[in-house]
Amino acid sequence: MRLASGNDAMKHWAIALLLLTLPVSAATPVPPALYDLYARGRYEDAIRAGEASHSAAGYALAARAALGDAALQGAPCLDCLKRAETLARAAIAADPQLADGQAWLAASLGYQARIIGLIRARLANMPGQAKDALDAAIAAEPDNPYAVAALGGWNVEVVNAGGPFLARRLYGATLEQGLTLFDRAVRLAPGNVAVRYQVALTLAGFDPDSYRARLTAELDATLQAAPATAYERAMQARATQLKSALPGDRARFDALVRKYQGYP
């Protein structure tokens, strides 16, 4: 497969960036009562409380809640994602060095690009903005396991789009880098439900046959880890569905992967 240009290249960037699933670092202090609202799945309450705090950490937590709510909707919700983007930008305005705000901005832009289509996303420079935000998140917090896992997913998706030679030549992306970053993310957070699920979902969308053993191991790790939030419990439920479909129901498995990756 050749690495395309123009709108096709835009698609490749969007796919890679859309693999920024919903976990993010807890390193930034958040008031316990505010975090508790998010952890319990009270997303609207968490959003309102985060906004009312007028703090970078509060806005970032509100963006996280908005994205969590969007991910758990029955269908893609563009308004939910625009709301998350606004909150993430408020967090960045309050503190540009806040990795959480940057990561949530990248995620919200990526999911919006999938919904609105390639042309509108390109005109708004969503892929470029999202990549800049991801780079800023990693620069601010290099050992953030979620950002490390997301960068691993970026490498894997670029290779998937264009093949190993052109991916390396044009983007510096390699499958080896992606898998190495996955390994590092897992070492940083071995018992983190969201990190293990993110790795599993990426491999499921890349090549579930060649990486069946690793994919199965990551799904098992997702299910064995202790969930810290209502969102993580939901991701465990999704992991259960993926694992049940993987052995013999490929059509169902592929449909679930597409849905969970956020395709309309």
In short:
With 264 residues, this protein is an all-alpha fold. The chain contains 15 helices and no strands.
The overall number of domains is 1
| Net shape | globular
CATH architecture assignment: Alpha Horseshoe
Query: How many separate helices?
Result: 15
Strand percentage: under 5%
Task: Indicate the CATH topology.
Answer: Serine Threonine Protein Phosphatase 5, Tetratricopeptide repeat
Supply the helix-strand structural class: mainly alpha
Unreliable stretches (pLDDT < 50, length at least 5) are 1-27
Work out the helicity level. Answer: over 70%
N- and C-termini, Cα separation: 25 Å
Number of strands: 0
Structure description:
- By secondary structure, this protein is mainly α.
- It has one domain (7-260): Alpha Horseshoe (Serine Threonine Protein Phosphatase 5, Tetratricopeptide repeat), CATH 1.25.40.
- 75% of the residues lie in helices and 0% in strands.
- It contains 15 helices and no strands.
- It has helices at 7-18, 32-39, 43-53, 56-71, 78-94, 99-116, 118-123, 126-140, 145-162, 164-171, 175-188, 193-206, 212-224, 230-245, 250-260.
- The two termini are 25 Å apart.
Secondary-structure map:
Blueprint: H1 7-18, H2 32-39, H3 43-53, H4 56-71, H5 78-94, H6 99-116, H7 118-123, H8 126-140, H9 145-162, H10 164-171, H11 175-188, H12 193-206, H13 212-224, H14 230-245, H15 250-260
